Amino acid sequence: MLPKKKRVTKEIFQNLMDGGKTFSTPLFLFRFDKSDLPKYAFVAPKGIFKSAVKRNKYRRIGYNIIRFISVRVGMGVFIYKKQALMATTEEIKENILFILKKADIYR
User: Fold this and answer.
1) Domain CATH for 97
2) Residue bearing the bigger pLDDT, 35 or 47
3) pLDDT range class, residue 7, cuts 50, 70, 90
4) What does 3-30 look like in DSSP terms, one character per residue?
């Protein structure tokens, strides 16, 4: 899990959903805005992941992946898509790295 200071708050989440750049991959929709501090969140919609156990599992997978990536700037929200149900952890990691490179956050 990410430390609390690196997670998106409710206010930041609402600002990202209202505005900000959007990037998309087969597994994620990513809402992003530039900032000095890195803050990220993962959303597993109830419409896709029916049980709370699966929603929490996929959120933990995302947080554990981004925890070991050295991201220094930006804040964003990763929203899982339906195709993520069949994805492995390695595929999820590749998609996260691809999005971060596309948003010019990670090199």
Assistant:
1) 3.30.230.10
2) 47
3) confident
4) -GGGBPPHHHHHHHHHSSEEEE-SSEEE
